[in-house]
Structures are given as C-alpha cells and as structure tokens.
Amino acid sequence: MKIKNPKMSGVKKDGLKPKQSRRDFMKTAWKGLGIIAGIEFTGLTLHYLVDRKDSDENEKLFEAGLVTQFPNKSVTPFRNGHFYLVRLEDGGFIAMSIKCSHLGCSIMWDEKKNEFICPCHSSKFSLTGEVINPPAPRPLDIYEIKIKDGKLFINLNKKKSEVSLKNLNSLMFSN
Length: 175
Fold this sequence. Notes:
The protein is built from 2 helices and 10 strands. By secondary structure, it is an alpha+beta fold. The strands form 2 sheets. Strands 1-10-9-4-3-2 form a 6-stranded antiparallel beta sheet. Strands 5-6-7-8 form a 4-stranded antiparallel beta sheet, with no helix packed on it. Strand 6 and strand 7 form a beta hairpin.
C-alpha cells in the first residue's frame, strides 16, 4: 500500500491548500503593473487632450514690480520666475526665458559683453534673445508682458517661440 506524501499532493497535513506558487505570484504582479501603466497612460493622454494653457483662466501672472523700478538698458534676473526682464534703451520691456533653447540649461547675463551665455555649450544670445553663437537652434522664448497701474506682470503661461524682431514690439507692451 502506497502512502501519499502530503507535500506532493497539494494538501497540507492540516487540510489547507498550499500558498500561492511563485509563478502565480509573478503573473499577478505583472497584471497589476500592467493595469497601473494603463491607468497612467490614460491619465497622461487625457491631460494632453484637455490642456487649456491658452485660456485666460490659466494665466499665471508674475508681478515683477513697478515700471519705474527698472532703468533703461538694464537686465534683471528673476530666478524664481525663470525669466530675465530686459529694459531696452527705448524704454520697452522683454521678458525672456532663462532656459537655453538648445538643451534647457540656465543662461547667464554677461554685462561686460552685453549678451546672454549658456554655460553648457557656449551658445550666446543678444539682448533681445536672438542667437549670436550656435548650437542653440532658435532664439530664447519670450513671455507676454502686461502693464496694469504702473506694475509689470509677466504671464508665465504664454510663451512665444521664435519671435522675430519685427513682431517683438507687440509683446513688449501688451495691456
């Protein structure tokens, strides 16, 4: 008469089934990870499709200060706002991104050379953000400026890429 080994029969001595096998555990874990990845993909897709950065409700205004606070021919960094505020010789303003258009490194203002320099790959930009020395593929991004009651407000949600000097005047004094 053969006696079955309780370990081999799938039933323990106390009558309970064995715990989940390693293979079943891995199957369950991969299914769970697949569901999580699917939820994340769906969420990102919906966020992309419903993005409304251009609506007025999503204006992110940064108060830079009073117009009189900035002298002509000056460059003021706003690191917490991620932009430089340039006051031109004629009194106009330009708010440009602090990120290089090449790889996104933070640019620095060189007052002696009167230009912006990227420390990562030596791109250089003029006072108006135009590329002087590549590898930057395009000018710096320009932010919309609003002037209300003598105060400067920079709309950080409205960024213009590849602004030419011809249409720069429309961005310098938008009310």
